[in-house]
Amino acid sequence: MNVTRSKQLKQFQKIINYNFNNIKLIDVALTHSSYANEIKHRIVSYNERLEFLGDSVLSLVVSDYIFHQYKHLPEGELTKVRANVVCEPSLASKAKMIELGEHLLLGKGEDNTGGRYRDSILADAFEAVIGGIYLDGGFQEASKFILNNMIDLIELAVEGKLIIDYKTHLQELIQSKSTEKIAYRVVKESGPDHDKTFNIEIIFSNTILGAGQGKSKKEAEQNAAKEAILKESYKDV
């Protein structure tokens, strides 16, 4: 590890208020696969495995917290709160607050096309950081990091003021009046493989409820659902 990277990681640890015993873990957590793929002379570990682990730890910590803190909420409401808190836009917003993107190692192509600030990359790396803290300091340290960063979103979600998972919210609105399912249809893909843009429409009862665009299918689906909710187009079907 060179001096510049060492300084970067030291700075990031100050921001998140956690010092790693094994500095390699946070280095890997902040390394994207695009960077590893560009390094030909040596094997570089990247963050996808830590992301997998962090995703599970995050879900457990949030589930445990809302289960014990909000005893009045039924299972369905608990599920909705958790979904809004652990979804990609929520995690990306928190990643931006801790300047995670500025400390990522990205491939040149990914970096040049805005990957450092892309929600999907930031959310995945945020989960990887959680996975790294869990391996380095155990469940309690990971839980502390998660709650320190996410508790405000949990409170907003419980109050019904955090609607970030627009897909789930739209499904609930429609299910209150119909059992028919929503379909998401990709109508256009544009751009090179490393920088694609997706255009997606929501179809319900043979009617287009909304359309959205994004750098991933998930982002485009969320934007389409958001448009349908804001336009209240689901009420006319």
Give an account of the 3D structure.
Homodimer. It is found in: Cytoplasm. It catalyses: Endonucleolytic cleavage to 5'-phosphomonoester. The protein is mainly α and 237 residues long. The protein folds into two domains: 156 residues, Ribonuclease iii, N-terminal Endonuclease Domain, Chain A; 71 residues, Double Stranded RNA Binding Domain (2-Layer Sandwich), CATH 3.30.160. The chain contains eleven helices and three strands, in the order H-H-H-H-H-H-H-H-H-H-E-E-E-H. The protein has a three-stranded antiparallel β-sheet with strand order 1-2-3, with helices on one face. The protein is flat, with a radius of gyration of 19 Å.
Determine the structural class based on helices, strands and strand pairing. Answer: mainly alpha
**Secondary-structure element series:** HHHHHHHHHHEEEH
Strand residues, percent: 5-15%
CATH topology of the largest domain: Ribonuclease iii, N-terminal Endonuclease Domain, Chain A
CATH top-level class of the largest domain: Mainly Alpha
Write down the Rg: 19 Å
